[in-house]
Design goal:
Layout: H1 2-23, H2 26-42, H3 50-64, H4 66-71, H5 79-82, H6 87-123, H7 137-163
């Protein structure tokens, strides 16, 4: 049991570390967009790479925070109904909803992102829709990493919710 607890704590710490690291990405995105506005409006010379870098950095920023959001219980949920249920009802909702909604969705995301990243590595594909044409395997690989972190945190959260005597009120997590 101690090993599982340490593993769960390690997964949560990894998600905290990933989110903290991702939070740093917001500053380069802001600077990049300010630079692009300056280049476009003041110098009338827009860059080829700003759009691509901005969406790539934003993607990493948003998706690396997924596991952290789940660990901190900041995700959207219907507390209005859930909190009015008895503990047993809350556990039943968790038992049904986590596998039906969370794990099914994350599993589909993981499958499709892994397949996309794998193909990207093999074909060395690039973004054809812009003049810069960056390679796509780095962002696609990061998506797989992000979804794995989210899935692992989901397993930890599900185990916590099902194991608690309180039935899932996890404000003390």
């Amino acid at each position: 049991m101690k090993l599982l607890k340490r593993l769960a704590d390690g997964i949560t710490k990894a998600n905290f570390f990933a989110a903290k690291g991702a939070s740093v990405f917001i500053f380069p995105v802001i600077l990049l967009l300010v630079f692009e506005i300056f280049m476009r409006l003041v110098l009338s010379s827009p860059t080829e790479y700003t759009y691509d870098l901005a969406w790539m950095l934003n993607t990493v920023f948003v998706f690396l925070g997924g596991g952290y959001v789940l660990a901190q219980n900041m995700h959207a949920k219907a507390d209005v109904f859930y909190n009015k249920m008895k503990r047993r009802g809350q556990k039943i909702v968790n038992l049904i909803c986590y596998p039906a909604f969370f794990f099914l969705t994350v599993g589909a995301l993981l499958y499709s992102s892994y397949h996309s990243a794998r193909i990207s590595w093999i074909t060395q594909d690039f973004a054809e829709w812009t003049a810069w044409n960056p390679k796509l395997w780095p962002i696609k690989t990061m998506m797989v990493v992000c979804i794995i972190l989210l899935a692992l945190q989901g397993i930890v959260k599900f185990a916590e919710l099902m194991g608690r005597g309180k039935g899932g009120d996890d404000n003390d997590a």
